[in-house]
Write the structure tokens for this entry.
Amino acid sequence: MSKIGKKPVAIPEGVTLETKAGFVHVKGKGGALQFPVLPYCSVAVHDEAGAKEARVSIMSADRQAQANWGTMAALIKNAIAGVTAGYEKKLQLEGIGYRASVEGKSVILALGFSHPVNFPLPEGISATVTKNIIAISGINKEIVGKIAADIRKLKKPEPYQGKGIRYVGEFVRRKAGKKAAAAGAKA
């Protein structure tokens, strides 16, 4: 049994959820999302005592059906949260000369390479830069996380000086350099 799949997902006021032709459509003040219904699952919207809720049920009892059951409920919950409040990931630039700016629909990054890196943003994703913090925001949790991970991948934080792009609040484990290792060996 899926603990997440068993629980109904509450649909807040101002959000519409409907299933058509194997897809779930979620609309709210932030925008609209659609994603396919996973195999072995079905989604139904119930209106009980004025409170709308979505319930996910499975058609089989095998392992894959139970895995899809919880995943489908989580996807619906994330889509509802996305169209109501949206998602945001923050990245921090660490290092001398590392800068970022937003020009149109792309982020321009100076990361110590011989040229600036132009990172285009997909439709529905926006970015803002304040000092050394890049904020990526949008209504789709998956795409916001993927864009943040792709930007971080351009220059991962290195363990000796800590320079690079990291998530805000991420702890980068530091290593001792050659001098500290040599001093420790002599003692």
